[in-house]
Amino acid sequence: MPTPPVCNYEGSDYQTSFWDQGGREYEDRAEAIALKRMLPKGGRLMLELGAGAGRNTPRYAGFERVVLLDYSTTQLEQAQARLGRSERYVYVAADVYRLPFLDGLFDAATMIRTLHHMADAPKALAQVRNVLQPGAVFILEFANKLNLKAILRYWLGRQKWSPFTLEPVEFAELNFDFHPKAIRNWLKDLGFAIEGTLTVSHFRVGWMKRLIPPRLLAALDGLFQPTGAWFQLTPSVFVKAKVEGGVLSSSKGERLKVDLPSDPVALFQCPECGSGDLLEKADHLQCPRCEAKWAATNGIYDFRAKI
Predict the structure, then answer these.
(1) What are 30-74's pLDDT values in tens digits?
(2) Which of 293, 276, 286, 265 lies closest to 67 in space, CA to CA?
(3) Which of 37, 67, 203, 208 is the residue whose CA sits 20 to 30 A from 27?
(4) What CATH code is carried by the domain that includes residue 188?
(5) What are the φ/ψ torsions at residue 248 (nearest 5 degrees)?
(6) pLDDT single digits (tens) 72-102
């Protein structure tokens, strides 16, 4: 079944050019503050969607295991070089529209600076919902079309599209801004309860970033982030949502602690036919039902296309 087009960072030096040398220390620090506010203190299994080179992964230290998912294998290789290869990290190359995981598997997930590449955001969010267990926390960051700069440009006649309408706007190829209300509607339709909203990057202005030290600017940003509960006018918005239906519990009402398999292959299902129990071979995984083969080399499981 065809899926929407994917923005592929294969071969990109995005981490170096955009983050390390791109003058975005303020944004990175501001996002770290937002994540710290929203993240659960701990958990069993975290899914990091659009993990890239692992910029945010160390911030999930409270989780026993983190699955880093990205469409680009070169981004995952960079994450491996940063984080190392161990049982704690599982590196997966896959299409967000066809997640290769068992349903109800994760107790938390994040999607930071990734949704803005989704041509069909509701379809991508539905996939995320499928792999989360009841009570799981989902932290979503999205690019906000209702930001103050877009509003002013629209009022001054320097921009044709309206920031007030609910449909996404594609301002560059496979780069989308979303209306906060549309995001809330999609999440609620999928069975998420929204628990918090933070506005981030209040001071994403060139001259301010040049004059004010990033640490101070991020601290100021942190003071304003809670205003997202009332209005969202910044270019970046963080939403904390929880899968409705409580948490997995025993007949006595005690929270169940699901054992994590030592073999990461047990986390997967075939994205082609939905079968679990994939068979591990020397350099690939094989589906026992449809016989699809998926590459598994150098510690990266590749579910983008059959081999």
Answers:
(1) 999 999 999 999 999 999 999 999 999 999 999 999 999 999 999
(2) 265
(3) 67
(4) 3.40.50.150
(5) -65, 125
(6) 999 999 999 999 999 999 999 999 999 999 9
CA distance 239 to 190: 15
Alpha carbon separation from 19 to 39, 55, 72, 233 (Å, rounded): 22, 9, 17, 23
Give the number of domains in the chain.
Answer: 2
